[in-house]
Design a protein that fits this description.
249 residues; 9 helices; 77% helix; 0% strand; disordered N terminus
Length: 249
């Protein structure tokens, strides 16, 4: 016969695990909670999008000033340089890099879920960019176009795609370095992290400028792509960290 005290203990443990711990897990999964951390960027993107859609002439005046400054440096050598830079975020280039890095993540970690997370981030970012483009329906600039192109303008797919791809890669590598060193920051690791953070900022910056220089995007298109790309990256990283905490990765 089981003593009463043991039955009470079983009841207590049952309540702890089923009700308290179960509620904690459910409370942790709040898909909109992370957005509070970068609400400023969300507000900036929404404000910029509203102005682009409903006050296009006002935005165009500012865009034209920046375009004139950037395109004042046009030269054959500069044009070839920016063509090479913009190639780093072309659809085919990004697609090949995404597939390559997805396979690398899979063979390095032996975890299919992490590879799927990385691939899903890129696909969702591309679909989000397409949705906004179709919604805003902004035509491309026709001031001084240096390369042939079709499609809509806002937000810049190259700017957004470069932020998502290069930032995710740099963050994930830094995250792996931290885990390997048990989150102890050494001088060598600090140098590696600094270089990776610089790459995560410089590549999208140069790619965005190249789109304006080549005459295929307004500066506001590029800014919108950068901001929306950053929001996508931050949210994806928050999902990764949540899944890592809960043992799903």
């Amino acid at each position: 016969m089981i003593p009463k005290c043991n039955i009470d203990s079983v009841r207590y443990i049952f309540k702890q695990r089923i009700f308290i711990e179960g509620n904690d897990i459910l409370n942790q999964f709040k898909p909109f909670a992370p957005l509070k951390k970068y609400i400023g960027f969300i507000f900036l993107f929404m404000l910029l999008t509203i102005f682009v859609k409903f006050q296009p002439l006002m935005v165009l005046r500012v865009d034209k000033v920046i375009i004139d400054i950037i395109q004042s440096a046009i030269s054959p050598a500069m044009t070839q340089t920016f063509k090479g830079i913009t190639f780093l975020a072309n659809e085919l280039t990004i697609a090949v890099l995404v597939l390559t890095f997805s396979l690398f993540i899979y063979f390095y970690t032996k975890k299919r879920t992490i590879s799927i997370w990385f691939l899903s981030t890129q696909i969702i970012g591309a679909l989000l960019n397409l949705f906004v483009k179709l919604t805003i329906n902004r035509p491309r600039p026709e001031f001084l176009r240096l390369i042939p192109i079709t499609g809509l303008s806002y937000p810049s797919g190259h700017a957004m795609g470069s932020v998502i791809f290069y930032s995710i890669i740099c963050w994930w590598i830094i995250h792996q370095l931290k885990r390997l060193t048990h989150y102890q920051l050494t001088r060598q690791q600090f140098i590696y992290q600094s270089l990776l953070y610089c790459c995560a900022m410089i590549f999208p910056l140069l790619i965005g400028i190249s789109r304006v220089y080549l005459g295929v995007h307004y500066p506001s298109d590029v800014l919108g792509g950068w901001v929306l790309g950053y929001i996508t990256v931050r949210y994806s990283i928050d999902i990764y960290q949540y899944l890592e905490r809960t043992g799903s990765f």
